[in-house]
């Protein structure tokens, strides 16, 4: 039974390919260039870096990795609701900060990752 189904599928595929009347061929150089030009128009371009600022509570710090996790309020400039997330930060920004501190911060967002550019204890 399986053999007859396999034979039938092979025959159907052969008939379908023969019916096309055209053998497959590699695209010519001009066609490749045109395809590449079309693809370039639809490729995702790097996102524009956006700047935002907010207030937060520090929930984790990893100075070795240059990372700080903040439970932040809404960030209007980025249209973000309140949430907890990690950001890259230079170690000198983290030196006087500890877990539990309330902070005011500024960040740059490139569409994929955020980098803290300013971090101060909140009054």
Automatic annotation (TrEMBL):
It holds the Pfam family CusF_Ec. Gene3D superfamilies: Copper binding periplasmic protein CusF (2.40.50.320). Residues 1-18 form the signal peptide. It comes from the Bacteria. InterPro entries: CusF_Ec (IPR021647), CusF_sf (IPR042230). Keywords: Signal. This is Cu/Ag efflux protein CusF. It comes from Sphingopyxis italica.
């Amino acid at each position: 039974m399986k053999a007859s189904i396999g034979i039938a599928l092979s025959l159907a595929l052969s008939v379908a390919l023969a019916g096309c009347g055209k053998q497959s061929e590699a695209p010519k150089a001009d066609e490749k260039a045109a395809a590449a030009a079309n693809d370039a128009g639809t490729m995702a371009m790097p996102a524009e870096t956006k700047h935002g600022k907010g207030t937060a509570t520090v929930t984790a710090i990893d100075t070795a990795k240059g990372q700080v996790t903040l439970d932040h309020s809404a960030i209007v400039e980025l249209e973000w609701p309140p949430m907890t997330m990690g950001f890259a930060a230079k170690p000198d920004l983290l030196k006087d900060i500890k877990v539990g501190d309330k902070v005011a911060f500024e960040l740059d967002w490139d569409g994929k990752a955020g980098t803290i550019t300013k971090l101060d204890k909140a009054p």
